[in-house]
Amino acid sequence: MTQTLRPVGDAVSLIRKRPEMYLAAAPPSGRELAARVASDALLLCATRVRTERQGPWWVISADVDWLARPPLDDPTELFFRIVPFPEGGVNSMRSEVLLTAFCDAVVTAEPAGSRTIVGSVPPSDPIWGVVTQVPQLKRVVAFRVAGEDR
């Protein structure tokens, strides 16, 4: 059976209005968000997933580009839409949209390049050196939660 995706209005606004529906902790914690994204990568066939803290940034990297997995053609849509995630169980959704809803900065990198998804991250920010330093990895996502201390 093919699953058809339907837009859910402005997903980010919906999530921000009811964070308790999507997260266990309030306010949102980088630790929980990192665990959710890393879990998605593992469930989508990654065999090596690394989660680490680099200053104010949380960094998730994997040996598989978990964002490139179907059902979307453009992986950046995952950061702006509620996307069903049957691999995670009944009523599960992909976690990347939670980063957009609760983080002040999100960046991603793959072998072809890197980009900012949310916020303004200057080229001098050390995170760019972190997300591009491990070429054997297929995907890196890094995010910063506003107001979260080291």
Based on helices, strands and strand pairing, what is the structural class? alpha+beta
What share of residues is helical?
10-25%
Instruction: Give the strand order, joined by hyphens, for the main sheet.
Output: 1-2-5-3-4
Whole-Å distance between the termini?
45 Å
Q: Report Rg.
A: 15 Å
The global form is globular
The total beta strand count reads 5
Instruction: Count up the domains.
Output: 1
Largest beta-sheet details? 5 strands, antiparallel
The SSE string, one letter per element, is: HHEEHEEHE
The proportion of strand residues reads 15-25%
Outline:
The chain has helices at 11-17, 30-43, 96-102, 127-131; strands at residues 49-54, 57-62, 105-110, 113-118, 139-144. It is an alpha+beta fold and 150 residues long. A hairpin with a 2-residue loop joins β1 and β2.
How would you sum up this structure, described in words?
The structure is a single chain. This protein is of the alpha+beta class. The protein has one domain (11-144). 22% of the residues lie in helices and 20% in strands. The protein is built from four helices and five strands, in the order ααββαββαβ. The protein has a five-stranded antiparallel β-sheet with strand order 1-2-5-3-4. A hairpin with a 2-residue loop joins strand 3 (105-110) and strand 4. The longest helix has 14 residues, at 30-43. It is globular, with a radius of gyration of 15 Å. It starts with 10 loop residues before the first helix and ends in a 6-residue tail after the last strand. Mean pLDDT is 87; it is low at 1-8.
